Amino acid sequence: MKNRVLSVIEKRLGKKVVLEKPKDKKFGHYATPVAFSMAKELRKPPFEIAKELCEKLKSEEIFAEVEPLKGYINFRLSEDFLDSYATAVLKNPERIISPIGNEKILLEFVSANPTGPLHIGHARGAVIGDALYRMGKALGYEIKREYYINDHGSQVYKLGLSIYLAGRESMGHEVTWPEGCYRGEYVYDLARDAMETLGRDHFVDESSVSRLAEWGKDRMMELIVRDLEKVGIYFDSFVSEKSLYDMWPKVRTVLEEREALYEKDSKIWLRSTRFGDEKDRVVVREDGRPTYLAGDIIYHYQKFKRSFDRYINIWGADHHGYIARVKAAIEFLGFDSSKLEIVLAQMVSLLKGSEPFKMSKRAGNYILMSDVVEEIGKDALRFMFLSKKSDTHLEFDVETLKQQDASNPVYYINYAHARVYSLFEKAGAEFGDVIEVELKNMNEEAKDLLFSALLLPEVVEEAFLKREANRVTDYLKALAAQFHRFYNENRVLGSQKERELMKLFATVAVSINKGLELLGIEAKKRM
RNA sequence: GUCCCGGUAGCUCAGCAGGAUAGAGCAUCGGAUUCCUAAUCCGAAGGUCGGAGGUUCGAAUCCUCUCCGGGACACCA
């Protein structure tokens, strides 16, 4: 809708224009401050320019009003124009969002280590990634979701060791836990499970730790996948770090050809400083074992070989120092590192009561995503994370999350949606029945509400391009509020404008429904 | 020390490719229901936009400095 309005204005004025939403609705649907920027070159006061421009634009039939005010030009869209959009929305709810994207995107997210269940911090990245996927897909992008499994390094061995020790301990043996072991309860569960499925003979001596590690890792992945499914998150592909190392000789040759590597202190270093990293990084240790970075280099080589137009990685903010070296590696490999975009998901601080507590996966002192889902439901969980920008710290109180009352915006939005459905039910009608109703002589509030309901596509577009799903949650909250107010002030059933208002409401409901769907949240038809 | 994120109402946060009187939710206080769900709505109160300079017609928004909070600075993944 915005693009349409913009093109009409630009065509008429013959110049590029910034179109914005006025801060206050009373100014109109859209506004442009273009007169300010023209003031200098024309050496005339903005309000005079605005006045002249208005005269040029008034004849456009998509506008009901074009008014100059203090240099701004304010536009009010015509009822016919809005109505035509409402009709289109109701005719084809599935295609509200028109495709604008033509890129192929590889979206990598979650990628949590398979050494423990997902905690609330992982959940944030998971939910953000999934929402991006849903929005991008609706906008016509071809997006693949990928999970990178860190199944190679020492942490997997430590998982095996932890299972072994937990088993020994529960058998009554005295054990000493080395630094860095996993001590969460799930380790004891795994040990018990291992005894049953693999046999107690795996707990005699440490020779079976590797076996336990392999087994435990697979178990954890199964659990992680199940947890994600419960929140409605799926992947198109999983890439195992371990499987990548076959390619290391080849990737290493590529790097060597480009003089990306050098040897020092009997280690192999990546010359990442050439592309802006603070220091060069070790990729192969003294004993010949590649570092984690080597794995990531191969992974990104393999990613870029698959020729996507863009790569989006969602990482925890603690990885931000890692960006420079990975981008450097990509450059060395001969690819364009600007195609790689990193979305950082900042830490989540949880409060319980008023006590802050830190999460640590390794210590086993953390909140499980699955527990939170069980308490507040996936929809509330998703909304919580999506309603804040990903790159800022998020703080919330677990106690608040447990409450299922009006303070939960998901309920508020759903309630608006449900009200529309209950109204249609009462009228014995369906959305399809009001498509052809013509909207005429509606009051200003109705037209404004309709306008708001039609904004979804441009909100989603901006949310996706800026990677800020919170624009959609904010929009839905505002739309719901506007609807509730209107609902309170206007009686629908039995009124002269019953059919018109029903069409308006249906459009609002479709917008809410679609908006929630893009966030992975189910719109309720009944509370 | 270097880098990243943040500092806006009592709390949690929007707004920041400069633009109209700085917004929302929660919490607080006061009101609204013979009528489509009051799980709602209306109203009140609440602000030196961390601080100081600068840029200009105009700064919460851009630049510099500075203070405060969180995080990252592995041959761990």
Please provide a brief summary of the model.
By secondary structure, the chain is an alpha/beta fold. The protein has 20 helices and 14 strands.
What report would you give on this structure?
Helix 4 crosses helix 20 and helix 16 runs antiparallel to helix 20. 49% of the residues lie in helices and 13% in strands. The longest helix is centred in the middle third of the chain and has 22 residues. The strands form four sheets. Strands 6-5-4-10-11 form a five-stranded parallel β-sheet, with helices on both faces. A three-stranded antiparallel β-sheet has the order 1-3-2. The chain has a three-stranded antiparallel β-sheet with strand order 7-8-9. The radius of gyration is 28 Å and the shape is globular. By secondary structure, it is of the alpha/beta class. The structure holds one RNA strand of 77 nucleotides.
Secondary structure layout plus pairing:
Elements (H helix, E strand, L loop, with lengths): L1 H12 L16 E3 L1 H9 L3 H12 L5 E7 L2 E6 L1 H13 L12 E5 L11 H19 L3 E8 L4 H17 L14 H13 L11 H22 L6 E4 H4 L3 H10 L3 E4 L2 E4 L10 E4 L7 H14 L4 E7 L6 H10 L7 E6 L2 E5 L2 E3 L11 H8 L1 H9 L7 E4 H5 L6 H19 L16 H10 L2 H10 L4 H20 L8 H21 L9
Parallel strand pairs: 4-5, 4-10, 5-6, 10-11, 12-14
Antiparallel strand pairs: 1-3, 2-3, 7-8, 8-9, 12-13
Helix pairs in contact: 2-3, 4-20, 6-7, 6-8, 11-12, 13-14, 16-19, 16-20, 17-19, 17-20, 18-19, 19-20
The chain binds one RNA strand of 77 nucleotides through helix 2, helix 6, strand 9, helix 11 and strand 14.
